[in-house]
Amino acid sequence: MKIAVYPGSFDPITNGHLDVIRRAAQVFDQVIVAVAKSSAKQPLFSIAERLEMLRIVLREVPNVRVDAYQGLTVRYAREQGARALIRGLRAVSDFEYEFTMALTNKKLAPEIETVFLMTEAKYSFISSGSVKEVARYGGCVEDMVPVQVERILRDKFRMRGEG
Questions:
Q1: Catalytic one among 37, 41, 55, 75?
Q2: How far apart are CA 5 and CA 38, in angstroms?
Q3: Is 9 among the residues known to form the active site?
Q4: Which of 29, 25, 10, 16 is nearest to 69 (CA)?
């Protein structure tokens, strides 16, 4: 079985992420969408909220499962029996960082390949950061995130007295 891990913060999942996940699910037998627990970032959503959002929007993709992890991504991938890490590329600006990460991961775990998937052009400008910024100020994030996530974002900022 060919297993791949698609790691990320998914704070929140965007249509660009969803595009990459669906395409990876066509290549691999199983794709694990893994929410990274990072102390370096201040996420808008908790790990539990991000896992729930992912489960909601990915329920129609049968060979995808959702999980969370902490620590080295390649260690988590090994524990899951994965042979590949999926990374999405939006534009050339993503490449240098992703290239460095891929080489670092290859040094740590030579048996695990990094597979880059380009997002569709219509999603190339979308990032979780820009989605949160637009939603925070009450802007429209339609077509940037799944419909379910759009509602969750609106509710989140309404509860915080923003948006």
A1: 41
A2: 17
A3: no
A4: 10
Residue 75 is among the residues annotated as catalytic for this protein: no
Known catalytic membership, residue 37: no
Cβ-based neighbours of 69, under 8 Å, separated by 6 or more? 7, 34, 35, 36, 37, 76
**Active-site residue among 83, 128, 132, 156?**
128
Give yes or no: 107 in active site: no
> Using one digit for the tens of pLDDT, what is the confidence trace for 45-76?
999 999 999 999 999 999 999 999 999 999 99
Flag whether the pTM goes above 0.85: yes
Q: Looking at 87, 90, 132, 156, which residue is catalytic?
A: 90
Catalytic residue (one of 17, 83, 132, 156): 17
Listed in sequence order, the residues at least 6 apart from 28 whose beta carbon sits closer than 8 Å to its beta carbon are 2, 3, 4, 63, 84
DSSP structure class, residue 151:
H
State how far the Cα of 9 lies from the Cα of 17, in Å rounded to an integer.
Answer: 11
Asked if residues 88 and 16 have their Cβ atoms less than 8 Å apart, the reply is yes
The dihedral formed by the CA atoms of 88, 91, 92 and 95, expressed in degrees to the nearest 10: -20
